[in-house]
Amino acid sequence: FRADFKLHICGFAVKQYEEMEERFRKRNDPLEQLEKEKAAYCQNFKDIYQEKDQTKQRAELFWGNCLIPAIIQAVDGKLGLGIVEHMRHHCKGGKFLYRKNFQVALMLHLKERDSFDEYYRYINHTVSFEKEWLEEQVKQHCAAANNEHVPLLCSLALDILQGIIIRVREALK
Question: 25 pLDDT exceeds 80?
Answer without folding.
Answer: yes
